[in-house]
What we know:
about 725 residues, alpha+beta, TIM Barrel, seven-stranded parallel sheet, about 20% helix, globular, binds beta-D-galactopyranose
Amino acid sequence: MRHLNPAVSTLFLILFPLLVFGQVITWQEIHPGIWKGTAGKPDAYDLLKAAETVPSPTLARLQKQDFPLDKAAIMVQFNHGKSYLRLPLQRNEQLYGFGLNFQTIHQRGRIMQLHADHYGKSDNGRTHAPVPFYVSSLGYGVFVNSAKYIDVYAGSGVRKDSKNPPEIMDRNTDKNWEAHPYSDAVEMLIPAEGVEIYVFAGPKPVNAIERFNLLSGGGCLPPRWGLGFTQRVHRLYTANQVKREAKAFEEKGYPLDFIGLEPGWQSKSYPCTFEWDRSRFPDPQGFVKEMDQMGVKINLWTNPYISPDASIYKAIIPYTGTHTVWNGLVPDLSMPQARKILFDQFEKEHVRIGVSGYKIDEVDGFDSYLWPDVATFPSGRSSEQIRQTYGLLVQKHSYEMFRRNNTRTYGLVRASNAGGAPFPYVIYNDNYSHEDFITALINSGYAGVLWTPEVRASKTAEEWLRRFQTVCFSPMAMINAWSSGMQPWTYPEVAPQIKALAELRMRMIPYWYSEFAKYHYNGTPPFRGMNLEDGFGTGIKQEKTTATLEENPYEEAVTREVKDQYMAGEYLLVAPLFTGQTTRKVILPKGKWYDFYTGKLVGDGEVVTISPGTDQIPVFVKDGGIIPMMPAMLHAPRGGRKTDIEIRHYGRKNGSYELYDDDGETFAYEKGAFSWRSIKVEQEPGGRLKGSISAPESGKPDTIGAVTWRFMTE
Ligand code: GAL
């Protein structure tokens, strides 16, 4: 440095440590147990900005926690215009998340590029919800708030300066040699000159997810009717055919809360006009009203790509991208002008006449039809940023339209991202693998999104029944008959079983509704992977196990990825069967588990083999579990109607449950018009179980009628 002038050497002194040790990360604890770290200059537009998130007030009530990682081991470096982020990993640690994956649950060791897209049969990061959030089995979470395509090496790279390097082995002679040596870090490349990262404390993994969801504003609270049954009719159905369909449900006694119309309701689609086709729907307002009187709401399919025949076409041109999708204009929904034109039209044509919601299609991808990354948008945001956030934008601004009208919505969308938890939309796709659908249901709980394993068609009655069983234990119980024209009773040989399942879905509405309220107020995902359950296991092999497979099948079972069973709400474990399966293994976490249908003890921290027959989907209840149920109805209760409830208790343990109540339809709950009723079941001195429920709060909505108790395990 002797030869350098003082200015240059000062610069060198500043730059050298940055290059070697990385950029300074400024940490700030923004809520109890949530830290925001900033390094460099992150992009001005990011996921949380696109979603316009307002953190949940619940965050203020959370307990303080220690920073869950070694801060000094978190590193950011800038390189070739990109930010390289490195976070430490311990040996005994499994990772979950990184978006809505369809085939994998354990993410440690995986390499992906997070990129909004349809799911192309491989978990490479291209998915409907490429959420840059992961949660660790050690009980913390990490989120990178960037609307760029992020390269992720989730514990695969090995640095030469690693402090915990893998053991060097000789492949010639050492049978323990591994093709994937141990890696001690998650590494990411973010194409931006800075990063904004969030670290969430637990203490349990599920608590880190709750914090992540609460940062987004908490999970969505659907209307009660959204948790009933929904049928999507054939794409070219007319108003009369739709009415006949609803009548058939009623006459045959199948529950139905909303019907989805597919592209044919629009005068033109692909590209779309958003206007009714008057030959099929001559009187849209009268039609929607008549359906409503039958207790059936209407949901409309659309994509946002605008036809030259749409009345808003000319007005919206200045606010659209350079490229078209199926010859339709692509509105730049990051601009207020574009969304005003589009959603004012939706509001006028649909929402004001009583349409209850949308299925917003094709906002995810398929490179071959979506705008290419060379496209530019009038907001100046990159095509990549618009792609990563398009699902958020359509959800946010359609949701706001319903909020303005003080009526809740529940619909479908094909793309989302971080920040999307509060939007009442469920993701779906065209991939029709029942197994993948269950894996996605599990992963949705790690990603702050909802997913439905919809039923479309089936080759056999058995397949129909099996698929139907899982949708009834998912966020949206739906048949999507847009192409098949199927109805619940299409296979007469299983029609009674299908009806019983749909009725069970309805009877469980008090449970589903309360579980969604917990998603909203506490951030707890209503559908979750087993690894989040106490007494289950993390999916990491115990290093010093002496047990052989024969000695301890449980340990062997829980170190594998468990992709075929999941938790539904606080107390239920669901273990679906797929076509052709007559028997299956179920891994029961530690603690006693009971059969949902009979209340009989099934097992405790063990692997059980069951052969349930085709009529039922195996469901197990945790010891002390409480499930509030209502009578089977054709439509979810509306208009503040009082409903009797039966409170079921399972096992011998004392139990408690928080039952949620509000008007089920409006946004009054946001102003405090809701209540929680505390349910308790306790053993009396003689061993008899006794239940109690707290009185309704005065001045709060009260839709709970007579209460009866059922002790399933007595
Ligand atoms: C697909 C969608 C289907 C159906 C269809 C209508 O993109 O995934 O569920 O809505 O469009 O054209």
